[in-house]
Amino acid sequence: MRLNLYISSSGFCSRRQAERYITAEKVLVNGEIAPHVYFVEENDQVEVDGHKIKQPTQDIYIVLNKPSGVICTASPTIVNNIIDFISFPERIFPVGRLDKETEGLILLTNDGSIVNELMKEENNHEKEYIVKVDKKITDTFITNLSNGVTIYNPRKKDFSRTNPCSVIQLDDYTFRMTLSQGLNRQIRRMCRHSQYTVTHLQRVRIKHIRLGSLGLGQWRYLTEDEIAGLKR
C-alpha cells in the first residue's frame, strides 16, 4: 500500500495531511526518513511526527446526528470538536464536514480509502437537506434555487455557478434540497443570493444512507448493506 494511503487508512489523518507530513520529512519508515513515494510492506514500522502508525484490526463506519455547535474536525486543540463529542474508544475521523451551526448526518470512520471516493465532486454523490428560512417561500425563490445561482466560492476566491438541483417546498418556510456539489456554505449562500436567511439546516441523507429516526446527538454503526453501498 502506498505510504500516504497507509497513514490515512489508519485513521491518523487525511491522505492530504499525510502527504504534508511526508514532504516535511516527519514520516519515518523503519527509523529512516521516508521517500516521497514509498510502498509499505508487511513488516515495516511507520511513524508520523513521533506517533507509531497501526492499522486497525476492523474497519469502523458510524453515522452521527450532529448537533449544532459541534465542529467537524479531529483536531484535539479545537473546543467542541466532533471526536471529543462522540468519545469513541478507537481512532476515527469525520468524512467531510458540516458547518458548526448545521445539524444532521455525518459519517465517521477509520477507513481512509473511502474518503476520497465520497469527497470527489465529480462522483456526483447526492446529499439531501431540510432547510428552513426566515420568510415565506415564493415560487421564484424555488425556481432560482433549482436552476442554480451564482455565489462566492472562497476556495477559488471567485464566483461559481451552482448546478441545477432538486428543490421541493414542504411548507411556507421549509424546503427539501438535494445537492451533488460541495461548495463552502453552499445552501446558506444560495439562499442569501435571493435575500433569504437560513434559520435551520439539517442534512438527512448521503447517497443511500439516511438519518431516519436517529436522535440528535446519537450515533449508530452502518449496516452491512450501507457499507457495501459506500464501497460499490
Automatic annotation (TrEMBL):
Species of provenance: Sporosarcina siberiensis
Pfam families per the UniProt record, alphabetical: PseudoU_synth_2 (PF00849), S4 (PF01479)
EC number(s) reported in the record: 5.4.99.-
UniProt family annotation: Belongs to the pseudouridine synthase RsuA family.
Full protein name: Pseudouridine synthase
InterPro entries assigned to the protein according to its UniProt record, in alphabetical order: PsdUridine_s_RsuA/RluB/E/F_cat, PsdUridine_synth_cat_dom_sf, PsdUridine_synth_RsuA/RluA, PsdUridine_synth_RsuA/RluB/E/F, PsdUridine_synth_RsuA/RluB_CS, RsuA_PseudoU_synthase, S4_RNA-bd, S4_RNA-bd_sf
GO molecular function: isomerase activity
Alphabetically ordered keywords of this record: Isomerase, RNA-binding
Keyword RNA-binding: yes
SUPFAM superfamilies per record: Alpha-L RNA-binding motif, Pseudouridine synthase
Residue span(s) of domain RNA-binding S4: 1-59
